[in-house]
Request: fold
Amino acid sequence: MKITIRNYRPLADFEPIRQFLIANHRFHNADGNFYPSEWEYMHTHSLAPWTVFPRIGIWENEGEIVAVANMEWYLGEFMLQINPNYNFLKPEILSYAEENLSKINEDGTRTLRLSRLHDTDTEMKALLLERGYHLVGSEWNGFFDLSNEIPVCALPEGFTIVSLQEENDLEKINRVMWRGFDHPGEPQCDIDTRRVMQSGPHFRPELNLVVKAPNGDYAVYCGMWYEPECREAYLEPLCTDPSYRRLGLAKAALYEAMRRTQSMGALSCIAGGQPFYEKVGFVQEFVKQDWEKTW
Reply:
């Protein structure tokens, strides 16, 4: 065994890390790592910090990737991706993250938050407590069973569900996503950010849906990903323009997107953190925790 550490090269290493995540994936995210789609979405999101992505650390055993220490959108956060056969590397990986992924505060102190730690990872939690971290937040994750028939939701008169393969108006997508995540007023970001979000190599326009209002507005955006190797769908993002809420539109779009992944072979869909998902049939399975330290 010869373990080496190196920095992430975004263009060269994106796909090898994606394949590492696929190889170590366990049904219903029992592995605790990123979904491959989550890794891709991180790169195409408007907040993606490309200039600091090379700080991401990669551990290899004779050229095979066995662990990754990454941030998602900003320095000061850290997510752990690991082959369970190499759990002995966790102390070393945490030290690397403290040195390379922490943020420097105005008073000269540093802060690091380990995000989305699977609540079943007792080994990592013990290490965090030993190093002086404390729990600062948690979010449940749940799954929708796709082995059964998915209900069909009738839309209000004049509303239709359209895939981005059929119609892809970036201005309207920009508006529904801006307003749908409760930003005030009209969009303050360029439509190029939405173009970038569709630029990933595994983005599927046929799975990304909008609900179109009678006046032509996009009332809902429903982003859906599917990895055939994992046989699980990954929902990201889902939002509704405030002017069109409480009409059942998001539920209808979500069910239609899941039906499409079901026809491709998906066995379940992951989402979580919001009461909405429980209401539409997602079952809570585990909790992901955030741990933080300032020193």
Remarks:
- The chain has a mean pLDDT of 96.
